[in-house]
Amino acid sequence: MLSILAAPMAAAQQVIPGPLEAEILRVIDGDTIEVRAFIWPGHSVETRVRLADVDAPEIRRVQCEAEREAGHRAKAFVENLLTPEGQSGGRVAIRNVQLGSFAGRVIAAMELADGRDLGAVLLEAGLATPYNARGGWCPSLESSLESAQEASASRS
Fold first, then answer.
1. How far is CA 32 from CA 10, 11, 45, 144, in A?
2. Which residues have C-beta within 8 Å of that of residue 100, sequence separation ≥ 6?
3. DSSP H or E segment with residue 116
């Protein structure tokens, strides 16, 4: 019985090293891309890929307008890399694919046709931060949070 309960947990932690060829269907935002992944000859699956290890600013559910603007810049940058001239169908390779925790998407690294890692390109362009770092997209909010933390620490 324990093995039956452990099987879903083991599957959720499984990583498919790849590379898997994928066709770009659309860019959702700076760190989420909808693809058709070719999982074996004659078979494909459509899914959303959340880029591993990076966090781009949001377009929806933002903390400030500056974050939304930065999110649109990140999305446009990724669209220009993946869908030149607005055409879907560009190809990438996805690696280290694992099940994500939201809406059935997967988390993976994405390699561009020229071999560069999309997450690294976003970081270099200043359009994303490492995943667990604070983005700093909302400077006034960040300074307010820091002031509140300092005040709380001084009361301790």
1. 25, 22, 16, 29
2. 50, 106, 107
3. none
Cα separation, 69 vs 41, whole angstroms: 41
> Among candidates 54, 27, 29, which has minimal Cα distance to 128?
54
pTM: 0.78
For residue range 79-99, list pLDDT tens digits in order.
999 987 767 778 999 999 999
Instruction: Give the whole-angstrom CA distance, residue 84 versus residue 138.
Output: 30
Render pLDDT for 136-147 as a digit per residue (tens, 0 to 9).
788 765 444 454
Q: Quote the tokens at residue 53.
A: 């290890």
Residue 132 in tokens: 């667990």
CA nearest neighbour of 24 among 113, 96, 95, 101: 113
**Going by C-beta distance under 8 Å and a sequence separation of 6 or more, which residues neighbour residue 90?**
23, 24, 82, 83, 84, 113
